[in-house]
Amino acid sequence: xxxxLWDRAIQVFVDNEVxxxxxxxxxxxxxxxxxxxxxxxxxxxxxxxxxxxxxSEKSGKFETFGAGDQIEPNEDLTYxxxxxxxxxxxxxxxxxxxxxxxSQLPQTTVVGFTSTNGIFGEVARGQYLLPEGYDFQIPxxxxxxxxxxxxxxxPGVVPDVRVPRxxxxxxxxxxxxxxxxAVTMLKTPANVGVKPEGNPTLLSTADSExxxxxxxxxxxxxxxxxxxxxxxPGETYVFNVNLxxxxxxxxxxxxxxxxxTLKSNFENIELAFTLNGEAVGIDQFAKLxxxxxxxxxxxxxxxxxxxxAGEHLLTTTITFKNPINDGFTDYPAGTxxxxxHVFGK
Length: 345
Description:
Blueprint: H1 2-15, E1 21-24, H2 35-39, E2 47-56, E3 61-63, E4 69-71, E5 83-86, H3 94-103, E6 108-112, E7 127-129, E8 135-137, E9 141-144, E10 161-162, H4 167-170, H5 177-187, E11 201-202, H6 205-213, E12 217-218, E13 236-242, E14 248-256, H7 259-266, E15 269-275, E16 278-280, E17 286-292, E18 295-305, E19 310-320, E20 324-325, E21 330-331, E22 334-344
Parallel strand pairs: 1-5, 5-6, 6-10, 12-14, 13-22
Antiparallel strand pairs: 2-3, 2-4, 2-9, 7-8, 11-18, 14-18, 15-16, 15-19, 17-18, 19-22, 20-21
């Protein structure tokens, strides 16, 4: 059942283009070591995890057999977004296997106050009956990674982001501070401040129109920010854009009560576009005139794809050279700036 539920959950995340996944392993005493299966949905390459070793009295050495545990890609379903794994000392045994396997994915960040319990050693052969009805178990098998290091046993799965234990997080905390830390981490782009090696590919006007017809989304769709009114002269509106899909549309649009008003408005509107400090001519944008909800509208749209890793800065500057009225509202002369910080992966 848990396997079927996991498969269904990943399919839902993929279908809805979920920007990040949080896997909460903080209260899990173990069970079946399904880590390599759970992690198989998040990779397109095989990843070696560990091999189990047991002491042989015959050879006097620890011996192993087989290929060991590996994460093998799920051929039918893959989620490529970032992952946060929440851990605590209440995560033990097979829970640590799942946490460890997920932690070996390059897109995973482990978050917690503490490491997992660190009790992953194999105890199947280490069961002992003691006098007076007592029993005792001890690890007699160990798991080693490809470099020969013991994994999990002892230190556990260690957080990449260790949430501090202080008066703000331990004494009457507001909400779930570990979960909040994971959400903040996932919302913070990995490439903040990183200068990209180049610019994204700008589509031709014909290809931009095709992208529109194919359902490409606006940059704003992927932004964390939204504004009720983003048309106030003198204001700068900032959008932090974590793309999950391309091509994407860089756009500016304006609507008025009728075509004559729209024409008059654009005689007093000056547009300027820059990409990473370089001017982009308005002639590179597809121009669309259309009617919507009884208004006349004009949109300039440019399709973009293949964003190199780093933080790209796109600006749209709208200058009202004179006061204008769109048939509904008066706008004073002035300049509006849309600033898009687009994070390529």
